């Protein structure tokens, strides 16, 4: 296994990466502001489940497919972009009464958890990032690489839970004030729609 010092350096680097504005934390922020703290937590757990998939993909060599195949990379990213556009359309159509995360089946904890999984798994850039990032902190002299990569993936997930959980609580608290007003609710829905569209465009234009 990686040394304790290596694990600490990796964990701190992961915290900083989680704090850096990107598609995942913006997605959590938008969902928490729009639907509440628990919505952000649900999405965060879904995103972290997706990270488990990417960690497994790297450890088993599957992630290398997206590095080698332009078709596989393009197919997955366009599926992800289409899903984000679908979420944008839902938010655009939502009225003030549709904003509470418990008021609609597709905004249940399970539904939002699923959103997080789809959002993360359909982004091939995450697999490529893990493929480049995780092996830098492994050491063949300290044992098999697969257990080391799995451990590093779990540390990255822990850092994500801490940071994204904080974002959920903060954004959910601020959004709660807006959700008391029908006009503000509609504004949050429109703002979330814009965020989803921007993330979809960014993902669709992503290159290996």
Averaged pLDDT: 81
Number of strands: 0
Largest sheet: none
CATH fold description = Growth Hormone, Chain: A
Q: How much beta, percentage-wise?
A: under 5%
Q: What are the segments in which pLDDT stays under 50 over at least 5 consecutive residues?
A: 99-106
What order do the helices and strands follow?
Answer: HHHHHHHHH
CATH architecture: Up-down Bundle
- Count up the helices: 9
> How far is the first residue's CA from the last residue's CA?
30 Å
Q: What global shape is seen?
A: globular
Which CATH C-level class is it?
Mainly Alpha
User: Which class of secondary structure composition applies to the elements?
Assistant: mainly alpha
Oligomer designation: single chain
Rg measurement, Å: 18 Å
The proportion of residues forming helix, as a percent range, comes to over 70%
Number of domains as seen in the coordinates: 1
Give an overview in words.
The model is unreliable at 99-106 (pLDDT under 50). This protein has one domain (22-204): Growth Hormone, Chain: A (Up-down Bundle). The chain is globular. Helix 2 (23-35) packs parallel to helix 8 (145-178). It has 9 helices and no strands. With 208 residues, the chain is mostly helical. The longest helix has 34 residues, at 145-178.
């Amino acid at each position: 296994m990686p040394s304790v010092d290596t694990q600490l350096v990796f964990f701190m680097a992961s915290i900083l990466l989680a704090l850096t504005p990107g598609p995942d934390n913006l997605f959590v922020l938008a969902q928490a502001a729009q639907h509440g703290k628990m919505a952000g937590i649900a999405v965060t757990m879904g995103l972290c489940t997706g990270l488990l998939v990417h960690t497994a993909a790297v450890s088993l060599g599957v992630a290398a497919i997206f590095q080698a195949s332009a078709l596989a990379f393009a197919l997955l990213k366009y599926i992800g972009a289409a899903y984000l556009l679908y979420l944008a359309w839902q938010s655009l159509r939502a009225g003030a009464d549709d904003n509470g995360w418990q008021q609609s089946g597709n905004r249940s904890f399970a539904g939002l958890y699923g959103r997080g999984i789809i959002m993360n798994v359909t982004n091939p850039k995450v697999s490529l990032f893990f493929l480049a990032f995780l092996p830098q902190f492994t050491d063949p002299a300290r044992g098999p690489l697969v257990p080391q990569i799995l451990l590093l993936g779990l540390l990255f997930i822990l850092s994500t839970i801490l940071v994204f959980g904080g974002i959920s609580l903060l954004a959910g608290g601020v959004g709660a004030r807006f959700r008391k007003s029908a006009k503000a609710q509609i504004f949050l829905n429109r703002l979330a729609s814009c965020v989803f569209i921007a993330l979809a465009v960014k993902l669709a234009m992503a290159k290996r």
